[in-house]
């Protein structure tokens, strides 16, 4: 059933320094391979090596080595990993067959301490183990994201529906505007015709009319200019007020800065340089002192024998007869060549160490003082810089205020001149206007108003037309959004039911396979062993957080008496053999639910001694259907019950 391209390929496993294995190479053909042997024959160590080749960390390094190595050749691919012993345990490196071996460790590598296999015996949460490889938190996040997308699409569809409701009103508005535009054009045409008639009938001189029109044009332009100048004066005055407020704030900040005389800054800088020089001298001194101490410690430890031999070889360093008598308990002083007891040198060294520590402490004190003085210097420098910045900014603001005040004076003079000119022009227009000419002017004014109104109506009509075109475009998106919403709803249904499907499939697989094996293995009075899945109120499908909660898996044991009475029993009353089989079937259910066979070609079985030989043979035959390679570690007497067609390995 495996999806890997390994059908018919012989796997080669090369192992060095793993478990109890020193070095070995084992070829494993597809199908069932039986590791036959007594205990302590490296069968489990080989299984651990296979696990390590897949990327698992459940392997140990040989006791007399710091590193182990395993290599798995499968088809055209080779996977190589190194296991290194560290203080925190064994750490693996290299490229294994799996990036994440979690599902394989749980459901394919069924050694004695396999967690899924032991879950039944220990009464652990079966659902948690089955669902552990599933990133429930990620599913929650995907559900929330899909719900957000659906909400956004619904809001967009509601908006389009609202636009559809507004659409008829907009069309009526556009039609009304078209009618109003037509009426305004007719009225404008009528006014223009009257103007033409009055121009023909009006017998004023062309010179008078030209002069009046010129005066009116100048009056209008002068009034516009006067209005603009008044606005400019107001704007400049507001700017001056804002600048004065800014200057006040800057002045307050500057006055609040502490005094920072140059003498204090110079003193601090001098102290800093003096302490830095002292620190440098002490650092060099401690380095030399450390070298002397280290060299003497090495001499006391027996290193640098060439130096002590050279000193001992000089006649003048022999010393007196008493020193020679006690030579075995003394050592040579490399500075003077005399023989002294090691304790005296050690005492001197300790004094030097104490002095070294005092010097290091002095350096630490200097560093603390340096930090404090540097902070003070930097603070004063920052204050001086800020004061300079504030002074410069205040000067700039003063300059700007002065410039704007000058501008205001000029503008006020300009305003006074324009006001006087307006009065002159108004008097001039009054002297030139006649009753007949006023009527013509009113017609021209009316024509101008109608033209302006016509422009506004046409602009409003264009805006409504654009809005109608936008709505038509949005309405055309409706079908696309409906299709997107259906896709999101389908995605939500899939996400919300994914956990439920996995749980249901897990219980179904367990119950089906358990029924099969109970029938095959014929366990006495056991009628059925099955898992009941019950929903709980805090089903994760409907949770808004990332907690991994959901249904409850309850394992039931149903027995029958010799008289045919059926009753509920407990897992605790199962025999060791029955519990082992139940644990293995539970692991198999996880193996099938998570499609482990698609990525993991090997299934490993170990520690089956609690099951009798005949049942082991049936169990192996049943499990052999699923993986490409099923490797089983068995005792010799149990291996005899398996068919001869299975590959056997007796030495590792």
UniProtKB/TrEMBL annotation:
Q: Which UniProt keywords apply?
A: Coiled coil
* Signal peptide span: none
What SUPFAM superfamilies does the annotation carry?
P-loop containing nucleoside triphosphate hydrolases
Query: Has UniProt tagged this entry with the keyword RNA-binding?
Result: no
Where do the TM regions start and end? Answer: none
Chain coiled-coil ranges: 136-292, 349-512
Entries under InterPro entries matching the protein: P-loop_NTPase
Q: Does the keyword Coiled coil apply?
A: yes
NCBIfam families, per database record: ASRP
Family label: Belongs to the Sph1/Sph2 family.
Report what the protein is called. Answer: Chromosome segregation protein SMC
Q: Origin organism of this chain?
A: Haloarcula argentinensis
């Amino acid at each position: 059933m495996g999806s890997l391209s390994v059908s018919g390929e012989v796997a080669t496993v090369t192992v060095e320094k793993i478990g109890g294995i020193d070095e070995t190479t084992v070829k494993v053909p597809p199908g069932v391979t039986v590791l036959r042997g007594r205990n302590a024959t490296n069968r489990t160590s080989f299984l651990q090596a296979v696990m390590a080749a897949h990327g698992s960390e459940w392997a140990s390094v040989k006791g007399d080595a710091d590193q182990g190595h395993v290599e798995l050749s499968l088809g055209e691919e080779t996977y190589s990993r190194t296991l290194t012993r560290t203080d925190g345990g064994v750490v693996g490196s290299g490229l294994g067959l799996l990036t994440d071996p979690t599902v394989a460790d749980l459901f394919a590598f069924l050694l004695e301490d396999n967690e899924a296999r032991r879950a039944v015996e220990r009464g652990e949460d079966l659902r948690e183990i089955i669902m552990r490889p599933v990133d429930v938190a990620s599913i929650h996040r995907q559900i929330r994201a899909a719900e957000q997308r659906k909400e956004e699409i619904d809001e967009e569809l509601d908006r389009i529906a609202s636009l559809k409701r507004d659409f008829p009103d907009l069309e009526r508005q556009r039609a009304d505007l078209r009618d109003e535009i037509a009426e305004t054009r007719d009225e404008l045409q009528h006014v223009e015709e009257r103007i033409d008639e009055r121009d023909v009938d009006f017998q004023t001189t062309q010179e008078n009319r030209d002069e009046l029109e010129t005066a009116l044009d100048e009056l209008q332009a002068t009034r516009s200019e006067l209005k603009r100048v008044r606005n400019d004066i107001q704007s400049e005055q507001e700017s001056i007020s804002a600048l004065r407020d800014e200057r006040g704030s800057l002045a307050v900040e500057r006055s609040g800065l502490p005094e920072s005389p140059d003498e204090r800054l110079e003193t601090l800088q001098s102290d800093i340089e003096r302490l830095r020089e002292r620190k440098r001298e002490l650092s060099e001194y401690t380095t030399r002192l450390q070298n002397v101490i280290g060299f003497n410690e090495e001499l006391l430890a027996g290193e640098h024998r060439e130096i002590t031999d050279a000193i001992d070889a000089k006649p003048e360093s022999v010393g007196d007869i008493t020193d020679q008598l006690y030579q075995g308990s003394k050592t040579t002083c490399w500075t003077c060549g005399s023989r002294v007891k090691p304790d005296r040198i050690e005492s001197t060294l300790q004094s030097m160490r104490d002095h070294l520590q005092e010097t290091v402490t002095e350096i630490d004190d200097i560093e603390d003082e340096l930090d404090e003085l540097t902070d003070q210097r930097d603070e004063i420098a920052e204050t001086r810089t800020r004061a300079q910045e504030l002074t410069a900014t205040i000067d700039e603001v003063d300059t700007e205020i002065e410039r704007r005040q000058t501008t205001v004076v000029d503008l006020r003079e300009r305003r006074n001149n324009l006001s006087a000119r307006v009065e002159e022009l108004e008097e001039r227009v009054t002297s030139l206007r006649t009753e007949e000419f006023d009527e013509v002017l009113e017609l021209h004014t009316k024509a101008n108003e109608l033209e302006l109104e016509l422009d506004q109506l046409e602009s409003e009509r264009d805006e409504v037309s654009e809005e109608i075109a936008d709505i038509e475009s949005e309405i055309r998106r409706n079908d696309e959004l409906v299709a997107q919403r259906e896709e999101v709803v389908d995605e939500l249904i899939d996400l919300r039911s994914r956990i439920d499907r996995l749980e249901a499939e897990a219980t179904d697989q367990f119950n089906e396979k358990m029924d099969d094996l109970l029938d095959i293995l014929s366990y006495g009075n056991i009628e059925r062993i099955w898992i009941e899945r019950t929903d709980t109120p805090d089903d994760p499908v409907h949770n808004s957080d990332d907690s991994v909660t959901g249904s409850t898996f309850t394992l039931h044991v149903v027995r029958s008496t010799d008289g045919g009475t059926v009753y509920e029993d407990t897992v605790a009353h199962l025999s060791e053999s029955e519990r082992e089989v139940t644990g293995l079937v539970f692991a198999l259910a996880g193996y099938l639910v998570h499609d482990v066979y698609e990525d993991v070609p090997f299934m490993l079985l170990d520690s089956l001694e609690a099951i009798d030989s005949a049942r082991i043979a049936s169990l192996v035959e049943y499990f052999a259907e699923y993986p490409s390679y099923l490797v089983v570690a068995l005792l010799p007497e149990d291996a005899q019950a398996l068919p001869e067609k299975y590959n056997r390995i007796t030495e590792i």
